[in-house]
Every structure is written in C-alpha cells, then in structure tokens.
Specification:
The protein is of the alpha/beta class and about 425 residues long. About 40% of the residues lie in helices and about 10% in strands. Residues about 1-10 and about 110-115 have low confidence and may be disordered.
Length: about 425
C-alpha cells in the first residue's frame, strides 16, 4: 500500500517511510467502518436491531483482538488510544497498592508495604519509554503520589536488562511497565524474562503482587505478540500503528478477577463498568477487522517488512559507504522490529531535519512524532541508548510498511543522495 501516490507522475512520487508514527487504514478496515456506520448506528445497549447489530460487531471485534494477542475476548477493554490505556494502568496500580494496604491494616497484618508505614507506591519503568508512560510517571512524582525508578537501558544492547529491573524492586513496588519494542530504535525488550523473575518473586513476598505491563504499540502487527508467552498482566494495543483507526484497547489478564482494574471514569456501565461511555462502534469495528488481518497474515507482513528493511540498509551502505553511516538501530545481542531503520549520516551539516528538508520524495521523521517540536536537539531516546550527541542529531527514523517495495527504497536512496550532496556542498 502506497499512500500519497495518487495519480502523481512517477518523477513526483512520494514515498512514505514513517509507519512507526502512523499507518494508513487498510481498505478492508475502511469497509468494516463504513458498514458499521451504515448498518450498526444504534446504541449497543439498546434492544432494537441497529443496536443489537452494533453489539454483535463489538463482540466480534473483542474476540478478534483477543486472538491477535493470545488472550480471550473477556481480556479486552476498549480505549480511546494508547495514551488512555497507559494512564489507566498507572492509575490502577496505585489504587491497587492502597487498597491492599488498607485491607491488610483492617486485618491487622504487617506484611509487604504495610510494615513501611507511609511508604508511597513504587513504579519501575525505563528511560526510553513513550511520553504516555514517561510523562505520566514524572507528573505523579511531582504531585507526591508515587515513587518511580527509571531504569537506564544498557549502552551496549539498548535494552532494559533483567538484572537491573530486579535490582530496582522495593517492598513497595506495585508496577513494572516496560515497552515491548522501542519506537525509535526498534529494539525489543526482554519482557518474558522479566515477567518470569518478577512472578517468582511475587509468590515469595505476598501482597501486593507486582503488576506487569508492556506498551506493545510498536510491536503489534509487526511481529508475534502473545500475552501468555510474555506473562504480562496488561498490554497496550494502539490501532493506528497496524492499519486501523485511531482507537486502542487494553489487554487485561482476567480483568477484575485475576488482575485488578480500577476505572478512570464512571458512567453508564459500558465495558463491564471498566471503561464506561457509549461505545464507538465504527472505530471498534475497524480495530477488530485490522486485528483479524494481523492474525491471518502476520507471517507475510513480518517477512515482507524485514526483507524490505534489509534491502534499505543494504542500499544505504552501497551508496554512502559504511564509513559515512551509523545505524542507531543496531545493537549487539539485541533483536529489533522487522521494519525499523534508524540511521545517521556522519558529517557536520547533515542533521536529520536538514536532510529531510531537502528531500523531495521521502516522507519520514527524525524520531517519535511526539518529539517533533524539539528542533535539532538530539533524541533523548538515542542519547539514553549511548549514541553520541553529534550522531544522534543526524538521525533519521526510516520505518517501512506492508506495501513498501524495493522500488520505493531505490527512490528514497536517490532522494537522500541528492540531499546529502547538497548539504555537503555547503561546507
């Protein structure tokens, strides 16, 4: 799929390589949304046919999303997007901590955080998270509502190392939230290993157990995401990262039974009172269809993106030479997303934004879209991964999509060659 091409002549064709920022909506997903708008316009809580049709669509979508991430339909709670889902998890973890604290006091038990008197709930996350995790944590620290440890990633692997997470755990730790795949480097985090270690520790120490969350926004739709293998309690799903509309969902393992859920909102009882508000049936229909496509075609999607991304890196090396490039997505011993190439052109005048400003065909970014107002400042994510400031300032994040072709890559390479030559001519 090549958005932006339209009926443009070949010489003016644009090539979009910013799929980690957002994806276009698949035609089948658009059809599902359109059908829901036309046939399922009723309130899902009503008894007449348009309402019941809406309820059926929502149920089917919930089932499709559950299958996509290795869970069941009851584990899925619809959200407005990833930001709400991540905030929901942090809110729940703190509420759970204090609830457990109060119950222990009532029963006269002095165990876990209770013996620490006024200790605040403690959360562990990494220093390379998306802002919907990072800024929530920072704000709640400012408000004096919790303690947070930002575990630094390794400068060698760009991953959070399991032992560093375990070393950060305190008696009052109530949540560990580590992303599954980084949105700028594409590096995969060792979530399954962390989960195994933490679950073993939780059994020994008693209540409150340490809740485990991963923001899987960048991983879903690009590689296999199985909540059972990952061993997490919560997993964030973001539709516009896998060719769905801008809506999201939160996987919760046995919500309200096995895993605590404390709603952010109160209202009409929808979503089993976990997330009330009249359901956005058309967008939910689109999310469900996109999940169905991922469940059916993931191997093809993943292999296609990996082949195209490898070709992109090969062509970069052929045209510019290894000595002219630094791949900010290559780290020793780490696996990464199949579609992500973060690269810097080495040179004084080759800052990423300058290169992109001279590209006539390439549509890409220098990093996360939420950091687009930082000017030429190096990405904090790359700096935290050990990339030198002068290299990080030159970074381009090139992320391919399902329909990106080798021909598209060739167009991009020529565009980049012309831009780099123009900037080097200024020196």
């Amino acid at each position: 799929m090549q958005p932006f091409n339209g009926n443009e002549e070949e010489q003016f064709r644009r090539v979009y390589l910013d799929y980690n920022a957002t994806t276009p909506v698949e035609p089948e997903v658009i059809e599902a949304i359109t059908e829901a708008l036309r046939e399922a316009w009723g309130n899902p809580s009503s008894s007449y046919r348009p309402g019941q049709k809406a309820k059926e669509i929502i149920s089917q979508s919930r089932e499709s999303i559950g299958k996509m991430v290795g869970g069941c339909s009851d584990d899925i709670i619809f959200m407005s997007g990833g930001t709400e889902a991540n905030n929901f998890v942090f809110h729940t973890a703190v509420k759970y901590f204090w609830d457990t604290y109060r119950k222990a006091k009532i029963h006269g038990k002095e165990e876990g955080p209770v013996e620490m008197g006024g200790a605040l709930p403690h959360i562990i996350t990494s220093n390379v998270e998306h802002d919907s995790i990072n800024l929530v944590a920072e704000q709640l620290v400012k408000e004096g509502k919790r303690e947070v440890t930002f575990v630094p990633v390794s400068k060698v692997t760009a991953r959070v190392e399991v032992e560093d997470v375990m070393s950060a755990i305190r008696p009052n730790t109530c949540l560990i939230s580590i992303m599954l795949a980084n949105n700028e480097t594409g590096v995969l985090m060792p979530i399954a290993e962390i989960s195994k270690r933490v679950q073993a520790l939780s059994k020994k120490r008693g209540a409150p157990r340490i809740l485990l969350h991963t923001d899987a926004a960048q991983a879903v739709g690009k590689l296999q995401v199985d909540t059972k293998e990952l061993g997490v309690d919560y997993l964030t799903i973001v539709g516009h990262k896998f060719y769905a509309p801008r809506i999201g969902a939160l996987y919760v393992k046995g919500p309200g039974v096995t895993t605590p859920v404390y709603p952010l909102f109160f209202g009409g009882g929808q979503e089993r009172n976990f997330r009330p508000g009249t359901e956005n049936t058309p967008m939910i229909a689109g999310l469900g269809k996109a999940a169905e496509l991922v469940h059916r075609n993931l191997e093809r999607y993943e292999n296609g993106m990996r082949e195209t991304c490898e070709y992109l890196e090969q062509r970069l090396e052929e045209v510019f030479g290894k000595e002219k490039l630094h791949f900010n997505s290559h780290f020793s011993g780490s696996k990464r997303l199949p579609n992500t190439c973060n690269v810097s052109f080495l040179g004084v005048h080759l800052q990423g934004r300058k290169v992109l400003s001279l590209c006539h065909r390439l549509l890409a970014s220098v990093g996360a879209a939420c950091h687009s107002d930082q000017g030429d400042s190096p990405s904090p994510i790359l700096l935290n991964c050990g990339i030198p400031p002068s290299v990080a300032a030159n970074a381009l994040r090139l992320s391919v999509g399902r329909g990106t072709t080798k021909g598209d890559v060739d167009v991009v390479i020529e565009d980049l060659r012309a831009a780099v030559q123009q900037l080097e001519g200024l020196s």
